[in-house]
Every structure is written in structure tokens, then in C-alpha cells.
Amino acid sequence: MPQEAPATAAREAPQAPPAKRRDAYFDNAKYLAIVLVAVAHAWEPVMEGSRATRAAYMFVYAFHMPAFIIISGYFSRSFQARPDQLKRLVSGVVVPYVVFEIAYTLFKRWADDDPDYPFSMNDPIYLTWFLIALFVWRLSTPLWRSVKWPLAVALGLAALGTLTPGMGQSLDLQRILQFLPFFVLGLSMRPEHFQMLRRREVRLLALPVLAGAAVAAYWVAPDVRMGWFYRSTSAVELDAPWWAGPLVTLALFGCAVVLAAAFLAWVPRRRTWFTVLGAGTICGYLLHGFLVKSLDYLGVVARYPWLAEPAGLVAVTLAAAAAVTLLCTPPVRRVLRFATEPELSWAFRQDVTRLSGRAADASSRTSR
């Protein structure tokens, strides 16, 4: 009997709830979206003179970042600015912003032969704008969860942003406001909305929607200024009348939501070979910019003009997709953890660190 007591006690002892598994669907979506981001960035130096490439670039730019931001908003729904959440926000967003803002500045100084290019924490360089935007959006989450018509208010702010020239010069505030509605939309979504996108009829409808958008992009490619898709400048700065800003904001929002829904409808629900890469998209996002900028800074396209020809465009596309895939792999994520997922326990009180430990990876797991 004494020998059975420990076993009985073990059976009766409360067991910790099993850790939630990551949702393969969202990891797949994040990986596929980051591939589109990298490919579109790689097209920038080589698309001049090619209407088809410019159209493809415009088509992808219409929804790739909106889709990524919608998912970011969806996984920010539980953010209440608790101390442990603020700790993760600092370690997962603020630290990577500072590290890569410095890294991209140093890279430009060296690769672009511009030794006097200034450091500036309030002027995001290249793709680091997304980190500072995510920081602002997530901090404002409790507000958006409290107001009555959050999406309408966010769209109003985005429209007003297009009427304010020069606003993008500090913290890329123009982009923060113009992409804000997608984050707020993600905050407003529930699991059943994504379930709806996976219905067979929705997936079938998504095909003609995507095809029609691609044809429309080819038709308007020579006449539409890409600045509208970057959302980094006001209407006046794009040589458009002031009233065009709010109208284009609403039109692009509608197009982006429809195309993002069509894209998400075809994201695989099951685990695939690339599902594990969804956890490393922050690495792929932050690192692929060095490769893309090398094409520009080092004059690679000028040296090898065949890259702007059809065969070269295919090679650039495949190379960008392969490179960002490698940059999302677990080994790269582990090596880069000091910059993208630092522990920072030394900088916070012990009670906050304990709370963060219990909630680690909560933002990347399936929402309840």
C-alpha cells in the first residue's frame, strides 16, 4: 500500500493544461503573405519598362500587406496593455525596430557608398515602418475595442491622413493612419469569419475575383501612380486634388479587403511543408530587405540588364521566394532571436517576467 500512494497522488494531482498548438491555417497564411511581400519588393528594381511586371506588382501590392495586417490585428484582440503584454511588445517589436533601423542605416552607408546617411529613430528606413506601426496599433487596441464604430472611425482617420501633406516625415505616420483600418478590421473579426472564407463556394468565387483583379491591374498599370498603394503620402503630394485622397482611400480599402479575402480563402487549412515557416516570418520580413536593397545599392540590375527581361524576371521571382523561405526557417529564427525575441528579463520586474513566461507565444497561438 505505501508503494501505491505516490502513484495515487500523482493521478489525483491537478495536471497543467496542455499547450495549445499553433493554428496551421494562420501560419500558412503568414508564410504565403511574406513570400508575396519579398517577391513584390524584388520586382521594384527590375519592373521598369515591363507593363506585365508593373501590373503584377500593383496586383500584389493591393492586398499583400493588408492581409498581413488583418492577421496581425486578429491576433492582437486580447491585448489589454497588461505589464506582461507590454514586455512582449517591447521585446518583440520595439527591440527589433531599433536593431534593424541601425542595421539598415549601416548597410546603406556601406553598400550605397553614403557614409553620412543619418541615423534616425523617428524616420523608419525602408521596411522597418511596419514595426513602428504595429507598436502604435497594438498600443491603441484597448481604445478600438471600446469605441462604438471602430472601423468607421479608423477609415475616417485614414481619409483625413491623405489631406495632410508632410505627415509621413515623422514615424511614417501617414502609413500608420492609412493602414490602420486593416488592423482595426482584424481586431473586429472572429474565428467564424475565417471559417466562412474556407467554404467551398467562397473559394470558387475567389478565383474569378483574383483573375478579374489581375486583368484590371494590367489595364490600368501605365496610368496609376504606385504611391497610392504605398499609402505613405498625401493626395496633394501625389499631384491629385484633395478630394481624391478620401475617395481613393475608401476604394483601395474595399479592393484590398476583397482581394485579401480571396487570398485567405485559398490558404491551406492543413499542415504543409511550409507551415513551420509561419513562425519565422518576422525574420524573413526583416532580412529579405538586405537582399533586395543590394540589387539597388550595388547596381546589380545595371550590371546585368538581362534581369529586367522575361527570363530574368522569372529568375528574380524564384530567387526572392527561395531566399525569404530560407530566412523563415527555424535555424535562422534561433540565430536571430537576440534581436527579434530577446528575453529582456533583466530589464523588467520579476513579477512581470513571470507573467510573460506563462503567456509566452500567446499572440502566435490560436485565439480563443
From TrEMBL:
Pfam families referenced in this protein's UniProt entry, alphabetically: Acyl_transf_3
Keyword DNA-binding appears in the UniProt entry: no
Keyword annotations of the record: Membrane, Transmembrane, Transmembrane helix
Segments passing through the bilayer: 55-76, 88-107, 119-137, 202-221, 241-266, 273-291, 311-329
Biased composition (Low complexity): 1-14
Positions of the UniProt region annotated as Disordered: 1-20
Domain Acyltransferase: 24-321
PANTHER family in alphabetical order: MEMBRANE-BOUND ACYLTRANSFERASE YKRP-RELATED
Protein name per its UniProtKB record: Acyltransferase 3 domain-containing protein
Organism: Streptomyces spongiicola
